[in-house]
Amino acid sequence: QVQLVESGGGLVQAGGSLRLSCAASGTIFSTKTVGWYRQAPGKQREWVATISSGGTTTYADSVKGRFTISRDNAKNAVCLQMNSLKPEDTGVYYCRIVPTWGQGTQVTVSS
């Protein structure tokens, strides 16, 4: 059974940075595509970034150039480095290995 645990969220001022981590267990991690998603209050969950098993990365237009997704297969972990944060980046951030979701970590960006 796949388990995903996110960490690294918090409160930051606009323009600041945060680094989120997602630790995976119960799967052959190196063979999996991992995604980050977020959900702002009152809005639907939206895709943020994906990294394939081969390391190919893709990003939503809203975060391109500011966020970087990376993986460490030796640690069964994926990170999301978030720079130049904006208030509209506020939300709960989830990692996903289909069909499993983590519990999420809260990111709040103050203006």
Descriptive labels:
seven-stranded mixed beta sheet; 111 residues; 53% strand; four-stranded antiparallel beta sheet; single chain; mainly beta
Explain how this protein is built.
By secondary structure, the protein is mainly β. Helices cover 0% and strands 53% of the residues. The protein starts with a strand and ends with a strand. The mean pLDDT is 97.
Q: What percent of residues adopt helix (DSSP H or I)? A: under 10%
Radius of gyration: 13 Å
Beta-strand level of the residues, as a percent range? over 45%
Helix/strand structural class: mainly beta
Report the sheet with the most strands, covering strand number, pairing sense and barrel closure.
7 strands, mixed
The tally of helices reads: 0
User: For the terminal residues, how far apart are their CA atoms?
Assistant: 40 Å
Order of helices and strands: EEEEEEEEEEE
Low-confidence stretches: none
Number of strands: 11
Choose one word for the global shape: globular
Mean pLDDT rating: 97
Structure, briefly:
This protein is mainly β and 111 residues long.
Topology diagram in text:
Layout (H helix, E strand, L loop, with lengths): L2 E5 L2 E4 L4 E8 L8 E6 L6 E6 L5 E3 L7 E6 L4 E6 L8 E7 L2 E2 L3 E6 L1
Parallel strand pairs: 2-11
Antiparallel strand pairs: 1-3, 3-8, 4-5, 4-9, 5-6, 7-8, 9-10, 9-11
